[in-house]
Specification:
Elements: H1 11-14, E1 22-26, E2 32-33, E3 49-53, H2 64-74, H3 89-92, E4 111-113, H4 116-122, E5 126-130, H5 140-155, E6 163-168, H6 172-184, E7 188-195, H7 201-209, E8 213-217, H8 221-234, E9 238-239, H9 245-251, H10 253-261, E10 269-274, H11 279-293, E11 302-308, H12 313-319, H13 349-363, E12 368-373, H14 375-386, H15 394-408, E13 417-422, H16 430-438, H17 467-481
Parallel strand pairs: 5-13, 6-7, 6-9, 7-8, 10-11, 10-13, 11-12
Antiparallel strand pairs: 1-2, 1-3, 4-5
Length: about 475
């Protein structure tokens, strides 16, 4: 759609110019730091940052209805810099020139409603939002588009030199980081640290294919994260895990898209999300709060976080109902099919605690809850969803299992419908499906296949040698197996 065809009052705002005054603000001591520095924790107190636009209050000069119309009409622009997550430019990266923004097709992923049979089985109407349909096949692309656009902006400044981007990963972060770094070319090098033997072959292949330096170390994700944090503290590297405030800024777009899908009416809506490193749920809380503050939405949806019993530090923290008695304690994780959520010491936990308090203050008690599910429930839910036309990964199965638990525990009242986060594409975790079908899970996973959810190919043979007889024999076998009706 051409600019001249848009409503006259919106034309000056459709293609924005850089504005605002963004800074890193420490959650603990409120100290602020210049964006031109590669910072991830406060030099003064080691607290985590949130990105803050000192001029964001100016956005309130326009009513929420203006922003609704602007975002809806902007979707019709054929300008790559304002597609995907940067449709919401003023809320994500208002200081970065459009020429520095990267768009690889991320964002505005499909939101697919469960069919009647699956809805009846679960007992709650719901949608899967398929973030596995992002370019690297996971939700991490939202944050990486913002983080690498920022690095692209930095590298154009005089004396910036070559930038090394590094991350720890269970698979999805490394795939996204390597993909976006590769797009930027030789000025951005990419290195990823993976826990040896705990990443699926599909996920390992992605950063290798994008040309990243892939380093495997013994242990689990938390061990990789400690090494990356040490490197970021002592060397000039760009850390791309969720400690990176730009990552969370980009992931807020998930909340914005859900609001836009429902025409900004989120009454009687719930959003279910796996917790993992706590970055995504933090970004979603922040995104809805910012839309609410600007009057773009008038109701905050319920948020349900989900953790596996094999990696459940956040669930344990919120089990204590008395806020003053809560103490966060990391846990030693056990093997989990939801590998991206197999984190015992979430980096973004301080952010999550702060934002849950803010969200609850605005939306009321019960507006945020955390539930726990078993590995068995995760696998059964993933297969159940995909038997009904979805492409849910194990984390998507975790979301569906969490929805069922939330309903059983009456955390979701009658009349609400839910949006479930399928964080990656089903094919990234296809090995777990095969283990389920073959009943080959090691005992520590605690998964016993349900026969009705198992599936295997059937080999048909024939003793006929003459071509037409072979054809007829095989066709007859198929007709009998499928109970076909003759014409």
């Amino acid at each position: 759609m051409k600019l001249a065809d848009f409503p006259e009052d919106l034309r000056p705002h459709l293609i924005p110019q850089p504005s605002g005054e963004m800074v890193y603000r420490c959650l603990n001591c409120q100290a602020e730091y210049d964006l031109r520095e590669l910072l991830y924790t406060c030099p003064r107190c080691r607290g985590l940052f949130l990105l803050v636009d000192r001029q964001e209050a100016c956005l309130r000069d326009k009513p929420g209805s203006f922003w609704q119309r602007l975002f809806d009409f902007r979707r019709m622009l054929n300008l790559p810099a304002l597609k995907g997550i940067f449709l919401y430019y003023e809320l994500i990266a208002p200081v970065i020139p459009l020429a520095d923004l990267i768009y690889l097709g991320e964002g505005h992923t499909p939101q697919v409603k469960a069919n009647d049979h699956l809805t009846a089985e679960v007992g709650v109407p719901f949608y899967f939002k398929n973030d596995g349909q992002n370019p690297s096949a996971s939700f991490k692309d939202r944050g990486m588009a913002a983080a690498l656009s920022y690095l692209n902006y930095l590298r154009r400044r005089p004396g910036a030199g070559r930038i090394l981007a590094i991350c720890a990963s269970t698979g999805d972060t490394s795939a996204a980081a390597a993909l976006y770094a590769a797009y930027l070319g030789k000025d951005i090098a990419s290195a990823v640290l993976l826990p040896h033997g705990k990443v699926t072959p599909q996920q390992l292949a992605q950063p290798l294919g994008s040309g990243a330096q892939v380093l495997e170390i013994p242990g689990v994700f938390d061990d990789c994260m400690k090494v990356v944090e040490f490197l970021a503290d002592h060397y000039q590297v760009a850390l791309l895990n969720s400690k990176n405030s730009w990552r969370l800024r980009g992931q807020e777009s998930y909340a914005f898209e859900i609001a836009q899908y429902f025409d900004y009416d989120l009454k009687n809506k719930a959003v279910v999300v796996p917790i993992g490193n706590a970055g995504n749920i933090t970004a979603i809380l922040q995104g809805f709060l910012r839309f609410y503050d600007l009057g773009i939405i008038s109701t905050l949806p319920r948020i349900i976080g989900v953790q596996s019993r094999h990696a459940n530090p956040v669930f344990r923290y919120y089990q204590e109902k008395n806020r003053r008695r809560r103490v966060f304690t990391p846990v030693a994780v056990q093997p989990s099919v939801a590998q991206a959520a197999m984190i015992g010491n979430p980096v973004s936990m301080p952010r999550l605690i702060r934002l849950v308090e803010e969200y609850t203050a605005q939306a009321g008690e019960g507006s945020v809850a955390v539930v726990e599910v078993t590995e068995q429930e995760i696998m059964d839910a993933m297969l159940l969803a995909n038997r009904h036309g979805h492409i849910a990964c194990t984390q998507g199965g975790e979301s569906l299992a969490g929805l069922r638990i939330a309903r059983q525990e009456k955390l979701i009242p009658p009349g609400e419908e839910a949006v479930l986060d399928a964080t990656a594409h089903h094919l990234k975790f296809i090995g777990f499906q095969q283990m389920y079908f073959d009943d080959s899970f090691p005992p520590e996973f605690e998964v016993t296949p349900r026969p009705e959810l198992q599936n295997r190919p059937q080999l048909l043979t024939t003793n006929q040698t003459e071509p037409q007889a072979r054809l007829a024999d095989l066709a007859d076998q198929i007709a009998a197996l499928l109970a076909l009706t003759p014409k």
